[in-house]
């Protein structure tokens, strides 16, 4: 197969959401400043940290233009002293209310949305944590403003632990960089082949956790120069094959049919199954899409023209993947 590593790098640079995105940082900092100034005197002290794909360096530019950033707020409280976690989330909402048209308490965070012509263009998610607990564990506040009591709870969480976990997987920083590229490729693939409605698509955190379990760095080292050259195509192909083989065939008694199903535990607290919200039918569809992706990669591997390989990558990832013209075709019309 022809080498398309340079095309993969160009593709990656086009889709990645840079950690230096000045507009996102500006929105975050403005809100953090407003929170600091306006938060109730009754509220506990807190510290902040970036979390999610922004912090991990696996974010991609959104298809709908609605950029987001996740911020963690660690309050110096014991969750046992606040049986209603929504009370703590209200400290945040009340401090930020009125900054934009939309400040909402969602189940897992407080979301501030910026709009232009009534369309969302940015949103900042503030996750609220109890950080000073007797058991040494951190807990995230769950529940909406109008939720029933049974849907308001504190759940064990370790948002910074996932960053540490990825760091511990690879000693070589360039291996970690390839890991992040692969996660971005998978997120772009997901956006191309799944609807954003409901729970039919694998989540970004699920794809990241799958990469933690099944990704292996792929590179070659020059004997003389010791220079390492990475191979993202092979890394992707091997990863997809392992994910495909992780599915199991199960019987669904309610639907009276067999489905392909998969489980993936979050490698840190709360260590939940990241596919638990998907139905068996949705997981079966995920399996079918993984199989199609693997078949496309095998097809590409058999091509000997870069233009043909890149066209298959466009079928997989969309038009952000660069299309090339083979050298042998350049100038053909003049020669004729």
TrEMBL record:
InterPro entries: DncV-like_NTFase (IPR048445), NT_2-5OAS_ClassI-CCAase (IPR006116). Signal peptide: none annotated. Residues 49-129 form the Cyclic GMP-AMP synthase DncV-like nucleotidyltransferase domain. Keywords: Antiviral defense, ATP-binding, Magnesium, Metal-binding, Nucleotide metabolism, Nucleotide-binding, Nucleotidyltransferase, Transferase. It holds the Pfam family DncV-like_NTFase. GO terms for molecular function: ATP binding; metal ion binding; nucleotidyltransferase activity. GO terms for biological process: defense response to virus; nucleotide metabolic process. It catalyses: GTP + ATP = 3',3'-cGAMP + 2 diphosphate. This is Cyclic GMP-AMP synthase. It comes from Clostridium symbiosum.
